[in-house]
Amino acid sequence: MDGQIGPLGRAPGRELRLGIEPVTSVTAARNLNRIGRAVIVHAEPGWFDPVREGTDAFWPKLVRELAGQGIETRLVAARSKPAEVLRDPAAGHVHVVMGNAPSYARNTLHVEAGYIPGFWYLDEIGVFWHSSLRLRQFCPEEINRAAAEYFFNGVSGWMLRHNLSKAPQAERVPGGLEPARAVIFCQDIEAAPERAHYLTNVEMIRTVAEHDPKARVLVKLRPQQGKASRREIVAAAQDYRNVQLSEASVHDLVAASDIVVTQNSAAGFEALMQKKPVVTCAKADYRHATLTARTRGDLCDALDYGADAMAGFAYEKYFYWFLGKALLEEAKDSFARRAIARIREKAFL
């Protein structure tokens, strides 16, 4: 995103549609196993049709390049019977899982669109809080400052100027919103089988609201917030005169607030573009750039001392390390080369 990215995080003039042929039967899977090594894309629900039709933005650039290197790419529904057959170690395939289904295997990688449009995970363990990034150390002294600042200004400038986010946003408010002590970005992860959160949405709201009853607190629900979760959040917010539910743009909400509180949402990552202190109340792969609150007491401490604790944090270097180095930018000419290098390294193709 250094000047060559279009409105959807895709380079102008580089729209590609190169779908992947699906394997839909056990017989077809067995036949493919006999042919030789291939890259098998295991698509989670929601990804199968975009990958098949070539509209997913990740695979179109790679399929032709892989084919030129003699490597076939095929698509299969994740956890289907054909997928099980293709997992036969003797076949020697490389398996790439699209979606949030973590696992580790010598021949498996994981793909998902990142927090910022146009950037993609290609990770050995998983994506988002499952990714290997959560386990790595961020060493700012190893990052070139000039390169990081150029990258950060390009990404944040484009996103903020054009009001871009992972989800569509309300129009920016001229002059901005009334200032607030904090904004809480809610999520819908509490009913997930695998727990990631330390504090619930309601616990975050009650803790922040009660910490300073005179301080204005903004709360934004997730666009697809579940009905039960939405009811709980709205009920909790209505208990406090200093809490206001808002549907404003995530960028306006961040700009108006002294501190950002979330579990591990994309909105929390986006807040780093405005260099605001962020408190994550769940496992997060961008935890290096936030204060982690495992208890309500931790959250209170973060509200009191978060600004001082994060003063001087190298936000530019962090963005460059996370997005520019660890993730893959689809608009870059190096996108396919970097992706295929990771696939080859993983599977020794």
Keywords:
349 residues, alpha/beta, Rossmann fold, 2 domains, 6-stranded mixed β-sheet, 6-stranded parallel β-sheet, 12 strands, disordered N terminus
Count of domain modules: 2
Number of helices: 12
> Alpha-carbon distance between the termini?
31 Å
How many strands, which pairing sense, and closed or not: the largest β-sheet?
6 strands, mixed
Task: Write up what this structure looks like.
- This protein is an alpha/beta fold and 349 residues long.
- It has two domains: 26-114 and 327-347, Rossmann fold (3-Layer(aba) Sandwich); 141-322, Glycogen Phosphorylase B (Rossmann fold), CATH 3.40.50.
- 35% of the residues lie in helices and 15% in strands.
- It is built from twelve helices and twelve strands.
- It has helices spanning 26-35, 48-53, 60-68, 81-86, 145-161, 201-211, 227-237, 250-256, 266-271, 296-310, 315-326, 335-347; strands spanning 38-43, 72-77, 94-98, 108-113, 119-123, 180-185, 217-220, 243-245, 257-262, 278-280, 291-292, 328-329.
- It has a six-stranded mixed β-sheet, with helices on both faces. A six-stranded parallel β-sheet has the order 8-7-6-9-10-11, with helices on both faces.
- Mean pLDDT is 92; it is low at 1-16.
